[in-house]
Design a protein that fits this description.
Length: about 210
């Protein structure tokens, strides 16, 4: 199940916020050794200050299994402000119909839950949530920066991107930028790959944030 929370709502969701930022530290600093800042066990960056929309995968016990962050490209976002070298001399992608997905992470505890084709179920759930959120918000695409490992996972999930700019080595990994269409065929491919039936979003009244492009 995916719970949607805007940044301004994190204070009232303190338990989930703590789990999310600690998971990000565990994954991005501890496992992937990215150059990220960790303070008091939390990984946060400047983009968390711009009221992003977080998609949180929650298990039946209310524990966090995975998370991602969405930001409109009309404001500060990572491709424009951090990874702009990927775009060569092209103009930055700015559109109210395009959001950016970043900080995609899955708990190691959820790694064993896999579909028939070995896709991690929580990964599929999070990817499906991006498309469902995008459809609700009237988006045309979501853009993301990802490494070669994530590129293979995205292909396994049926998430074929239109890659933009030029892939480059950032740190020790080859890094890509891709535009992912927000449409029903994409959603159906993800659901089929992950073994998902129906919406992944929490349907409890008032459980999910109001969305607007």
């Amino acid at each position: 199940m995916i719970k949607l929370i805007y940044g301004y709502e994190l204070a009232r969701e303190a338990y989930l916020a703590d789990q999310m930022f600690r998971l990000r530290a565990e994954v991005f600093k501890g496992r992937l050794n990215w150059e990220v800042k960790v303070s008091n066990g939390w990984e946060q960056d400047q983009f968390d200050r711009h009221n992003p929309l977080y998609a949180l995968s929650i298990d039946t016990d209310g524990e966090l299994q995975g998370a991602l962050r969405l930001l409109p490209t009309t404001g500060p976002h990572m491709l424009r402000d951090v990874f702009n070298s990927l775009m060569d001399d092209d103009a930055p992608i700015v559109s109210p119909q395009i959001w950016e997905s970043t900080r995609f992470c899955v708990s190691p505890k959820a790694a064993a839950i896999r579909s028939h084709n070995r896709l991690n179920y929580v990964t599929g759930e999070l990817l499906a949530s991006i498309v469902e959120v995008g459809q609700r918000a009237g988006l045309s695409s979501v853009i993301s920066v990802y490494d070669a490992r994530m590129r293979r996972i995205l292909r396994l999930a049926g998430c074929e991107a239109v890659e933009v700019g030029t892939p480059r080595k950032i740190g020790n990994v080859t890094t890509y930028a891709g535009l992912f269409p927000i449409d029903t065929p994409m959603l159906e491919r993800i659901r089929a790959a992950a073994g998902i039936e129906g919406s992944v979003l929490d349907v409890t009244p008032n459980a999910n944030a109001t969305l607007a492009a």
